Amino acid sequence: MAVKEGNLEAPIRHPLDWKNPDFYNEESLYQELERVYDHCHGCRRCVSLCNAFPTLFDLVDESSTMEVDGVKKEDYWKVVDHCYLCDLCYMTKCPYTPPHEWNLDFPHLMLRAKAVKFKQGEVRLRDKILTSTDTVGSLAGIPVVAGIVNAANKAKPTRKLLESVLGVHADARLPEYHSKTMRSRLAAKIGADTKGEAAGATKGRVALFATCYGNRNEPVIGEDLAAVFEHNGIPVTMAEQEQCCGMPKLELGDIESVEKAKNANIPVLARLVEQGWDIVAPIPSCALMFKQELPLIFPDDPQVKKVSEAIFDPFEYLMLRHKEGKLNTKFKNPLGKVAYHAACHQRVQNVGSKTKELLSLIPDTQVEAIERCSGHDGTYAVKKEFHESAMKIVRPVVSRVKNAKADYYGSDCPMAGHHIEHGMADGSKTQHPMSLLRKAYGI
After folding, report:
1. What was the pLDDT predicted at 285?
2. Pair 295, 350 in one domain
3. So what's the pLDDT on residue 3?
4. pTM
């Protein structure tokens, strides 16, 4: 049978077989890493996406055989460490994903490797702290403490100490913490039971999953979202309780912690769906977690499936309403030129460029989309050993923003937006697309 050069069909994602004992078998893992690395070396289409692939190709090119068999097995982990599971290679570049017979799923192989390393206890204390977003946020968000933490995160002596003790790069931008959280700002909406007007695939009323970052670090995004949605006649409520979606722990390879987060969040969100609410998450990574990752990790859980089918990216939701003639298009303020960075975890949701489409509806507004990874990932860019790589990855994005001479720039992922802002180094400030939309409405 002839081998196809590449896929002629859309990629199919197989469930993650993480409960199989062989999943954590190191010898089996090495065999699969070698197989996949060999195919990647022969293709090299993904070289521009992140630093995982250049690392792999340099290892091969500098080996004695100039093939994967010349690379030391212990060096395989250098590739794994640079992968932050953005999924772009799988969804936008790789020609050998299933149903191709080579059956390559590079991100999930990297996840498996991270899970093996986590299971063996080879994880730094720093990485455990950085991914414990609920715990860190609840402590850093205490009134008075938030101000102290924010001030310390901007002080050079403190940052130098943090770098030497914990391995957090002294020059990396760290998020600010707010004692007045998104959940407290929108508390009056919890338990609301306002009726909405269904249209197309939408029920016309949404429950906001605040997300740990949105709740503690950038609550204004939730306020802007609620204002915009209600301006469009869409009632907004909030889940009565929530935990981190689990994405940070997933990227660490701690799948058991992902399961604990799932067990806390899914029953709450499933009840909201049963009560006639759609779910919206303002952070792309969190929407992706419920849409794609949890259904692949827990394929037999009907509640996970129920939530995955009812959760939306905010701009995806608004454009679905627009398709049915239910979007308010009476904009008061033009935005001029907007340099819009399309976040990786939004792109791989396969919903199209809905943010760009919506912002382009605003009169006298030109949107330049930048479809390239910012290199932040949430934790990758703040780690001492990876910060320089993250700044290198964001450089082409920063260049595009500067060349655009835009009135505004930003990303659906606020962390990516601030990473671009850090790269700009000119005092300009990122603007989240939802904040821009609220500005355009004049509300």
Report:
1. 92
2. no
3. 59
4. 0.92
Alpha carbon separation from 52 to 27, 47, 323 (Å, rounded): 21, 8, 39
Residue 90: domain span: 21-119
**Cβ atoms of 333 and 439 closer than 8 Å:** yes
47 shares a domain with 149: no
Give residue 119's pLDDT: 92
pLDDT one-digit tens code per residue, 387-438: 999 999 999 999 999 999 999 999 999 999 999 999 999 999 999 999 999 9
Pair of tokens at residue 342: 């399309």
Same domain, 157 and 190: no
Same domain flag for 280 and 210: yes
Do residues 109 and 45 share a domain? yes
